[in-house]
Each structure stands twice: as structure tokens, then as C-alpha cells.
Design the sequence.
């Protein structure tokens, strides 16, 4: 695997500005997003699940949480492992301590094509994450049949979750028992900041 990165050449005017920052031993703040993937290896046969994903003493601000289910797709050559299953999901909540997302219930019935809120959450992700209008990869029918992912936007948070320990907990409710051999995946996208000092060649983590 080769990772090709662009090399940027700046004009003389901007190069002088950069050299001035370096000569003054100033730290440059760099913002980026980190991804963490968690797996619930096998759900019990029950319609309601509470999953405590992680607890941390140092808050890393979760901005988006993306959840997907797969039923009996591991080590099955005849089954498309890139597809996901809805498992007759009815409602889902993400709790960051006492704050829950989304605020209201979804009241899904995917078998009867009642998934407008779930599809809207998927559609809004690109606008929020990339700050541009969506050019959706999946139609509503393709989303329902092949990738009914749950996209939770946690980017708007109150002051109470900005310091101290934070519990990240998921609650699922389905219309029937979750099928056997069902695995859940939870992708958490965080905002992070580091400070880079060119003279010292040091990188300091801020968040």
C-alpha cells in the first residue's frame, strides 16, 4: 500500500511569513479528527440492548458516532461483508453522561419503509462533516437494503460534557429479538488539537 501525499510549494511572500513564525519559536496549532472503532462481538437474543462503549477521564469531544449491525456475515464467502443489516431497529439513543442524542425517539419501522429520520441523519452527515451540500452515494432504497447505518451528530454539546470523565453509552430497541450471530460496530469521530514546534521538532497534544 502506498500513501501519496501532496507536497506544497509556497510563494516567497508566504515563505517569509512562515520563517518569521519559526524564528520566534511559536507553536503552530493543528486541528484534525481521530477515529476509534469499537465492536460488540455478539448481541444476546433480546429486543433491547445497553452498550457502554467507553469511559475516559480525559474528555475527547465525540463529534459523530456511526453504528452498524451485521448478522451472520463473518467468514461467509457467499454473503456481501460490506453490507449491513437493520435488525428491525425501532429506536436508538447515544448518551454522553446525561445528555442524549438524538433528543426525540426515531419510531422506526424499516420493514414498512418508515425510516425517514434515519435516512435524514445519514444525509445530513456530509453537510455537517465536510461543510458542503450532499451528493448522496445511496438512495433511500439502497440505504435501507444495503447500509442502514445510524449516524448520530454529537457536535453540538452543552457545557456539562466539556470537562471531567465522560461515559459514552448506546441504547438500542428493536421490534423483535436481535438475530443470533449479530455483531455491532461503533465508529466514534473525535476532534483533536496538537501544537507543533518547528525549532524543537516537538508535538504536544492539547485535546
Sequence:
Amino acid at each position: 500500500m502506498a500513501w501519496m501525499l501532496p507536497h506544497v510549494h509556497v510563494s516567497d511572500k508566504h515563505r517569509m511569513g512562515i520563517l518569521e513564525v519559526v524564528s520566534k519559536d511559536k507553536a503552530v496549532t493543528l486541528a484534525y479528527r481521530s477515529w476509534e472503532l469499537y465492536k460488540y462481538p455478539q448481541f444476546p437474543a433480546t429486543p433491547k440492548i445497553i452498550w457502554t462503549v467507553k469511559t475516559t477521564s480525559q474528555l475527547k469531544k465525540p463529534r459523530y458516532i456511526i453504528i452498524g449491525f451485521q448478522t451472520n456475515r463473518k467468514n461467509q464467502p457467499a454473503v456481501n461483508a460490506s453490507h449491513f443489516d437493520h435488525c428491525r431497529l425501532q429506536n436508538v439513543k447515544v448518551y454522553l453522561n446525561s445528555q442524549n442524542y438524538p433528543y426525540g425517539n426515531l419510531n422506526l419501522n424499516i420493514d414498512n419503509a418508515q425510516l425517514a429520520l434515519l435516512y435524514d441523519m445519514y444525509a445530513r452527515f456530509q453537510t455537517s462533516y465536510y461543510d458542503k451540500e450532499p451528493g448522496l452515494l445511496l438512495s433511500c432504497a439502497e440505504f435501507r437494503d444495503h447500509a442502514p447505518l445510524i449516524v448520530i451528530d454529537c457536535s453540538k454539546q452543552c457545557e456539562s460534557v466539556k470537562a471531567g470523565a465522560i461515559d459514552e453509552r448506546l441504547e438500542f430497541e428493536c421490534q423483535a429479538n436481535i438475530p443470533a450471530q449479530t455483531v455491532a460496530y461503533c465508529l466514534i469521530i473525535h476532534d483533536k488539537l496538537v501544537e507543533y514546534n518547528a525549532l524543537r521538532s516537538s508535538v504536544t497534544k492539547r485535546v
User: Anything to note?
Assistant: The chain has a mean pLDDT of 83. The radius of gyration is 21 Å.
